[in-house]
Amino acid sequence: MALFRAMRSSRHSHTGRIVALFAAMLVCAIVFPGKAEAITLIPPSLELGLIPGQESQTSIKLFNEESTAVELYTESRNFTATGETGLPLFDFESEQIGLSTWITVEEGPIVLQPGGRYEVPVSILPPANADPGGHYAAIFFSTTPPTEGQVRISSKVGTLILATVQGDISESGLIQELATRGGSKLHTRLPITFVTRFKNTGNVHLKPAGTITVKNLFGKTTATLDFNTGKGATLPTTTRLYETLWEHTAVNATEGSFWTQFWQEYANERNNLAFGRYTAEQRLTAGATNQVQGLATVSFWVLPWRVVLVWSLVGIIILFVLILLIKRYNTWLIRRNQVKG
Predict the structure, then answer these.
(1) Phi, psi (degrees; rounded to nearest 5) at 119
(2) Are 113 and 64 in contact (CB under 8 A)?
């Protein structure tokens, strides 16, 4: 269940663009503030292939999970990606063009009775001269109609539409960077987060997939990590940041005095132990036939100094005790031989 609010500002607002925080770019449910209604929406996203001049039919299912009826209104808006997060950026002020204007959907009010289900037909008709490639929009459902010229705050739930118009399709992309989070080359323990910046240079969205293989100083594979398990998409002409985690066990928080934190962090290093120089190699593919391929590597060191310090001290103590015992044993042997002599 994901919850967000979208603000509709007036025409005179300096900007009508908002960032709607979708979990992994998907929204499947909403709880309306101040009410008991909870609406589930299926599917949270749709990927469609469109032919210019030909109508495409699909549908969105709504389910009212609560004990009171609710009225919903629809609205279609285009979106783009913001920054490198992949989060959708919706424009609620500018005149709509493109995919959002090709969509025909029931405006509402759509009345959902308690426990009721409703299937909303959706029709998409791209014009005959529609540009080939990717087009992106969302169909929103909200408790208030999309009245223009008013300042209004409303809760919205939406299905993302990722459409590809047939024609001259270009699928291309590359790995701009593979690094560890923060760019650090020295770590004291796992987990280590690998950051991949993937640039889409084509005209359709891509969902890169693949693996990151971690090898130690001797070339032995230490870990093989799946990349982009959430199947996040990179929109055309944008760069998206993906994170891949390498870990053994969960890390416990440290608190208290210096020595308390020292031993807590020692335990974290011991439970997530790695030592020496490592190289991570990433191989990815993307596109309808996996024709987009990428390769990148990054090297780094892991030096768990607390573990090294403690184990070194323990080793020194053990060695000291052994030397002391050997000396005492030799002294005993000498005395015994003197007595016998």
Answers:
(1) -105, 120
(2) yes
pLDDT at position 20: 41
Half-sphere exposure in the Cβ direction for 151 (13 Å, CA): 3
Band (38; pLDDT cuts 50, 70, 90):
confident
pLDDT, tens only, 182-197:
999 999 999 999 999 9
DSSP string, 120-169: EEEEE---TTPPSEEEEEEEEEESS---TTS-EEEEEEEEEEEEEESSS-
327 residue type, one letter: K
User: In terms of DSSP bridges, do strands 292-302 and 186-187 run parallel, antiparallel, or are they unpaired?
Assistant: parallel
Q: 128 and 30, same structural domain?
A: yes
DSSP 265: H
Q: Report pLDDT digits (tens) over 2-26.
A: 333 333 333 334 344 443 433 333 3
Same domain for 198 and 249? yes
Q: Which pTM does this prediction carry?
A: 0.80
For the purposes of burial, counting CB atoms within 10 Å of the CB of 53, is it exposed (0-12), middle (13-18) or buried (19 or more)? exposed
Cα–Cα distance between 162 and 135 in angstroms, integer? 6
Expressed in angstroms, the distance from the first to the final Cα of the chain is 90
Phi/psi at 315 (nearest 5 deg)? -65, -40
Helices (H) and strands (E) in the chain — how many of each? 3, 21
Its domain, for residue 313, covers 308-341
Q: Based on the fold, state whether residues 16 and 45 are members of the same structural domain.
A: yes
Q: Tokens at residue 169, please?
A: 């399709």
- C-alpha to C-alpha distance for 15 and 160, rounded to whole angstroms: 22
Same domain, yes or no: 29 and 65? yes
CA distance 136 to 100: 8
Is the Cβ–Cβ distance between 126 and 102 less than 8 Å?
A: yes
pLDDT grade, residue 251 (50/70/90)? confident
